[in-house]
Amino acid sequence: MATEMATVQQDMNRQDATAPTATPPTATAPSVTRPFVTEARRIVVKVGSSSLTTAAGGLDADRVDALVDVLAKVRSGGEKEIVLVSSGAIAAGLAPLGLTRRPKDLARQQAAASVGQGLLVARYTASFARYGVRVGQVLLTTDDTSRRAHYRNAYRTLDQLLAMGALPVVNENDTVATDEIRFGDNDRLAALVAHLVRADLLVLLSDVDGLYDGDPAKPGTSRIAEVGGPRDIAHVEIGSAGKAGVGTGGMVTKVEAARIAAAAGIPVVLTSASRAADALAGRDTGTYFQRTGRRSADRLLWLAHASTPQGSLGLDEGAVRAVVEGKKSLLAAGIAAVEGDFVAGDPVELRDSAGRPVARGLVNFDAKELPRMLGRSTPELARELGPEYEREVVHRDDLVVLG
Ligand SMILES: Nc1ncnc2c1ncn2[C@@H]1O[C@H](COP(=O)(O)OP(=O)(O)O)[C@@H](O)[C@H]1O
Ligand SMILES: N[C@@H](CCC(=O)OP(=O)(O)O)C(=O)O
């Protein structure tokens, strides 16, 4: 982890007005100082609901167009690929359904998302068409991010869209996600998509021009220009709700997303949508989160951050050592307890004898099959129950140790 101190800068234009246009590059535009941005070939850009909607609610076509202008220009040279993770489905669906504010219940949020997602993608399609760019809609759930077959499929589709010169517009599949398995915000989804497509850069666009060292609405708070690692911002007061009332998660989920991406070797720039052009030109704007780690094995990041465990396995001490220190597969012999109603292929939590989660993995058996297997060796199981029981309960390739 990097230990440099965060750099703090005073900034007068912290909050985006609802002005539709991107900030024009003027004489005061900051100089190009970020080669990791100018050199990035594959970029994931995430834009929040608060940057796409009008003050009165509903989709703001001018703001969508302003963002599209910036993104189309970035990729116009043919050297850069962009994946856009766009929120805004729920916000866009409110007014057409006669709703004045974001409903609290999931069913009405899903209805709004169902109406709004169509409008959102229609708007992007029309707007990118001005530049002759095709968009492809990709809707993902947490399952698509943790199950091997879904994960590969999601990667293949996104990669193929990019190879064919299209621009993927990703959102969470809100209409089928339940409360338990929902990302809710798109910030972490964007970090995981960045990892999935092996992006060189993640740009998070919000209605605020960076991370502040306190509530940006209050005087005396300053923008943090650079974050070397989580310790740099351990003291920062990070709010969970945006002022516009249409976004979710606030700054908390953005910082978490930046942490996930940075730990996976992807640098992150967090700024406002109106500064997207500056940010993507490598100018010194917003908050830059340095990478803190290297790329990890593909799917495991998704397993750690995106999956919702459907149950847990209690491990004895030897099994905890084997899994955590030895990076070995989990065998039935080391399991003392089973909780939950999972089926083979589900993500489960692996806990130590004190109940602390130590790892997460995809289980190879249904919950109801496991009790009679506990504490027994693999050859014994094969002999007594049949050769299909001669398997690890969680294979080490499907297992991630929690840090
Ligand atoms: N320390 C902080 N620095 C910057 N913004 C903050 C901070 N704490 C809370 N916020 C709030 O987070 C909001 C952005 O979150 P959100 O509304 O969810 O945006 P989006 O829709 O873009 O995802 C900002 O408008 C700001 O008011
Ligand atoms: N998938 C949801 C995202 C929810 C949301 O508000 O996210 P964000 O604005 O990124 O905090 C939507 O499209 O409305």
Automatic annotation (TrEMBL):
<dbReference type="InterPro" id="IPR041739">
    <property type="entry name" value="G5K_ProB"/>
</dbReference>
<dbReference type="InterPro" id="IPR001048">
    <property type="entry name" value="Asp/Glu/Uridylate_kinase"/>
</dbReference>
<protein>
    <recommendedName>
        <fullName>Glutamate 5-kinase</fullName>
        <ecNumber>2.7.2.11</ecNumber>
    </recommendedName>
</protein>
<dbReference type="InterPro" id="IPR002478">
    <property type="entry name" value="PUA"/>
</dbReference>
<comment type="function">
    <text>Catalyzes the transfer of a phosphate group to glutamate to form L-glutamate 5-phosphate.</text>
</comment>
<keyword id="KW-0028">Amino-acid biosynthesis</keyword>
<keyword id="KW-0963">Cytoplasm</keyword>
<dbReference type="Pfam" id="PF01472">
    <property type="entry name" value="PUA"/>
</dbReference>
<feature type="binding site">
    <location>
        <begin position="206"/>
        <end position="207"/>
    </location>
    <ligand>
        <name>ATP</name>
    </ligand>
</feature>
<feature type="binding site">
    <location>
        <position position="186"/>
    </location>
    <ligand>
        <name>substrate</name>
    </ligand>
</feature>
<dbReference type="InterPro" id="IPR011529">
    <property type="entry name" value="Glu_5kinase"/>
</dbReference>
<feature type="compositionally biased region" description="Low complexity">
    <location>
        <begin position="17"/>
        <end position="30"/>
    </location>
</feature>
<feature type="binding site">
    <location>
        <begin position="248"/>
        <end position="254"/>
    </location>
    <ligand>
        <name>ATP</name>
    </ligand>
</feature>
<feature type="binding site">
    <location>
        <position position="174"/>
    </location>
    <ligand>
        <name>substrate</name>
    </ligand>
</feature>
<comment type="pathway">
    <text>Amino-acid biosynthesis; L-proline biosynthesis; L-glutamate 5-semialdehyde from L-glutamate: step 1/2.</text>
</comment>
<feature type="compositionally biased region" description="Polar residues">
    <location>
        <begin position="1"/>
        <end position="16"/>
    </location>
</feature>
<dbReference type="InterPro" id="IPR036974">
    <property type="entry name" value="PUA_sf"/>
</dbReference>
<feature type="region of interest" description="Disordered">
    <location>
        <begin position="1"/>
        <end position="31"/>
    </location>
</feature>
<feature type="binding site">
    <location>
        <position position="87"/>
    </location>
    <ligand>
        <name>substrate</name>
    </ligand>
</feature>
<dbReference type="InterPro" id="IPR015947">
    <property type="entry name" value="PUA-like_sf"/>
</dbReference>
<keyword id="KW-0418">Kinase</keyword>
<feature type="binding site">
    <location>
        <position position="46"/>
    </location>
    <ligand>
        <name>ATP</name>
    </ligand>
</feature>
<keyword id="KW-0641">Proline biosynthesis</keyword>
<keyword id="KW-0547">Nucleotide-binding</keyword>
<keyword id="KW-0067">ATP-binding</keyword>
<keyword id="KW-0808">Transferase</keyword>
<dbReference type="InterPro" id="IPR005715">
    <property type="entry name" value="Glu_5kinase/COase_Synthase"/>
</dbReference>
<dbReference type="Pfam" id="PF00696">
    <property type="entry name" value="AA_kinase"/>
</dbReference>
<dbReference type="InterPro" id="IPR001057">
    <property type="entry name" value="Glu/AcGlu_kinase"/>
</dbReference>
<dbReference type="InterPro" id="IPR036393">
    <property type="entry name" value="AceGlu_kinase-like_sf"/>
</dbReference>
<comment type="similarity">
    <text>Belongs to the glutamate 5-kinase family.</text>
</comment>
<feature type="domain" description="PUA">
    <location>
        <begin position="311"/>
        <end position="394"/>
    </location>
</feature>
<dbReference type="InterPro" id="IPR019797">
    <property type="entry name" value="Glutamate_5-kinase_CS"/>
</dbReference>
